[in-house]
């Protein structure tokens, strides 16, 4: 269990934010480990191809289960700054690049990699002081070539969660909101207890800022990053995401892949193929294919308005995304 203690000053500074770096790292972790996301599906061939890049591979080697036991280097997921969402990633990459070599070495200490198992490229970059800069370059390259396509849909999910949390704060106070983040997270009035880890640690954030970041790609992860009080982050699973468990003969086994899931989330309002193609920077033929799968699965409906066909998410589509229940549950 991890206890994160907050005094009155720290509690007053608690804020909510998206963390683009965390979401991209979570997607990279899935690709590096050959795993699928329960909602967004397979990271895809583009993600696997990106792993051939030297700097992307450097980051990926720190995310493999045989290397660090699931620990994510704090330097890879810096605290989001206060500012426009569009500029958060740039600021996070800047902070990552400026990580001092001694901090890099501490986070890559032998406890993270059993003796003799630290990858040669990781050790070399650590010892010559290039790890932080190369990691930032690798994450940026992965973002541009792979994750940028998925980000608009992920961002929409995260911002929907943040709006719901803000509503709870306005109606019942920040203490009540903290109690709704996760069933394994307890707010006692003075500290947060994270009960989903084997670690036994206590962090005092007296007078420090704690940033609460929902995660969609890292769902259902709950994690505390508090070793450095100036970089304190609590990541919790975004509300409303549920794994797709298709019914027999429903056609849902075809619902795999980040683009299709993103399009489904974007159809809370009626949109045309052309509009979706523009919004997601996909070829019209690709959008038409995804819409056909969603239509056969019963997740979207369509209607014609003169010469334009509009698609809209159905109640079944809402249920797949977990949007039928708007109540935040602990």
TrEMBL record:
Pfam families: HTH_20 (PF12840). Keywords: DNA-binding. The keyword DNA-binding applies. The keyword DNA-binding applies. GO terms for molecular function: DNA binding. Gene3D superfamilies: Winged helix-like DNA-binding domain superfamily/Winged helix DNA-binding domain. PANTHER family: ARSENICAL RESISTANCE OPERON REPRESSOR ARSR-RELATED, HTH-TYPE TRANSCRIPTIONAL REPRESSOR CZRA. This is DNA-binding transcriptional ArsR family regulator.
